[in-house]
Design brief:
With about 325 residues, this protein is α/β, with parallel strands linked by helices. The protein contains seven helices and 17 strands.
Length: about 325
Amino acid sequence: MPEHKTKLLIIGSGPAGLTAAIYAARANLNPLVIAGIQVGGQLISTPDIENFPGFEEKITGAFLMEKMQKQAQNIGAQIIYDTITKVDLSKRPFICCADSGDVYSADALIIATGASPRWLGIEGEDKYRGFGISACATCDGFFFRDKAVCVIGGGNVAAEEALYLANIAEKVILIHRRDSLKAEKILQKAIFNNPKITVFFDTIPIQFIGKDNPLALSGVKIKNKINGKISTINCEGAFVAIGYNPNTEMFLGQLDMDEANFIKTKPDSSKTNVPGVFCAGDMKNPLFQQAIIAAGSGCIAALEADAFLNKQK
């Protein structure tokens, strides 16, 4: 199987991975970026971004990631469309095996694998996932034009999904387990001012229901946490937006992690417990999953990787 040797390997191509690539390329490290099947991470499916510095108008996540990718490549980073499936961090150089069969050998490693949508785990969710249940409004919202849909969650992602769907669906019902939304105030204002969006507070979904032939979602059973009342919301689409799980499975047992498998790093640093392995982005930050924070952590990781490699010389 082909083996590729590099000073610095970056796994992941979201804001953290591409920012790390930009800074690493500027340091003449000639980094290899293993991008997965698509550059951009979660941000690629974000319809509107208005809080990333430097843009006076709203931009799409796809636009921002395209610009980051081109900038990294123009400086000298090499982007490879492959997926790392196994790593050995027991000694340097670190060995990373890809889905293609290729093997990557690296003197230093930056992990920027991001996170994946978290699911509810309630009855009917697995059955109707892909048949009315989704975690990406920009991916699947088109299929619910002029129909009733639900969004489950109360943070920024849920609010953004609801606002996006309000431009497509007949009505949007936002279901949140608490008595107030966690989303930014500007998003909350937009939610409450949108006549097509209704918010159910103190409410939890308990079951997805639907038809079997053909397989299709028809509603969500909900429970009011205050009075215990159970009712059904009729909808043809349901979008789960309750957060993310870190994509860190391949590093289990090799890197220190917290109870939710987010990678631990040293204070104010991207350094993990393994010298030469650095971590940037959402898989190390369970609290603030924002593009600008991920990008900043990618910068730190690249600078610390450069310092590490220079010290090794």
